Amino acid sequence: MSKYLIPEWDAPANVRALCSTRHGATEVIDLVTAMEGVRPVWLNQVHGTALQPLDADSAAGAEADGSFTTSPRIACTVKVADCLPILLCNAQGTWVAALHAGWRGLAGNKGFGVVEHASRAYSATNNIASDLVAWLGPCIGSTAFEVGDDVRIAFTAHQPEAQAYFTPVAGSGGSLHPYKWMADLAGLARLRLQAAGITRISGNDSSRAWCTVSNPERFFSYRREKECRRMAATVWITNAAPIPVR
User: Fold this and answer.
1) Helix (H, G, I), strand (E, B), or coil: what is residue 4?
2) Does 157 score more than 90 pLDDT?
3) Whose C-alpha in 84, 99, 144, 194 is 20 to 30 A from the C-alpha of 108?
4) Residues 6+ apart with CB under 8 A from 27
5) Which residue intervals of 85-242 are DSSP H helices?
6) pLDDT at 28 exceeding the cut of 80
7) For residues 75 and 32, is the Cβ–Cβ distance under 8 A?
8) 119: nearest Cα among 199, 58, 186
9) pLDDT on residue 37
10) Which of 175, 104, 96, 162 is nearest to 134 (CA)?
11) Whole-model pTM above 0.85?
């Protein structure tokens, strides 16, 4: 089994990215560090919406659920095991970001979550979000992600079209119990990215092959295993040669 995925996306040549599988989370980071002299910066993820700007002096452990940088060889890195990793870069290869998108971070506060924070951070220096390219990694799939009505409302209250990404669970509902739904987390992320002006999106297409729960031989899943073992998704700017496929 492959130890990592190399995103197939419209990133410029000087942007590198990897997402580990269950077979090599730590080894992937060691590989990146050894081959390119890149320093991964880990976060203390709290299922929130805050993003941490990074530079050569940034320490690890900031309380945030995403990071971004314009500094070469600083790897924006997130850990996941059912939540969705979103990697971003601009077409010019001068800005990269990694987002940890569970449903709380994606839904955010009043419709403003990690995607919107990333778009705002990029646009803050007179850039436009349509310059950005996104790659979605593996996450819990729509056949495994059962949620309550509170999750559906968190998305649809500010974006009614999000309803299309919730399928009612047979037999749920009634006066005493809230409805249960199967949620398409990757689909909801694509919707939020597109609404933010980010339309070049690759990776997770909501098919079973990307589902962390349904592919135990390939991915960690907290919901399936009830253990906090996680994969890593990382992106950085470099001028080095491409990493070999393994």
Assistant:
1) strand
2) yes
3) 144
4) 3, 20
5) 103-107, 114-123, 149-156, 185-195, 222-225
6) no
7) yes
8) 199
9) 86
10) 96
11) yes
Nearest-10 Cα torsion for 198, 200, 206, 207:
180
d(CA 246, CA 105): 32
State both tokens at 58: 């940034």
At residue 246, the pLDDT reads 45
Judged by average pLDDT, the poorest of 48-57, 85-94, 214-223 is 214-223
Per-residue pLDDT tens for 160-208? 999 999 999 977 666 556 789 999 999 999 999 999 999 999 999 999 9
Is residue 49 scored above 50 in pLDDT? yes
Q: Which stretch of DSSP H or E encloses residue 29?
A: helix 25-36
d(CA 16, CA 242): 8
Determine if residue 197 is left, alpha or beta; phi over 0 gives left, psi from -120 to 50 gives alpha, anything else beta: left
Closest CA to 135 of 215, 62, 33, 234: 234
Cβ atoms 118, 68 nearer than 8 A: yes
Is residue 230 helix, strand or coil? coil
Q: For residue 124, give both structure tokens.
A: 């803050």
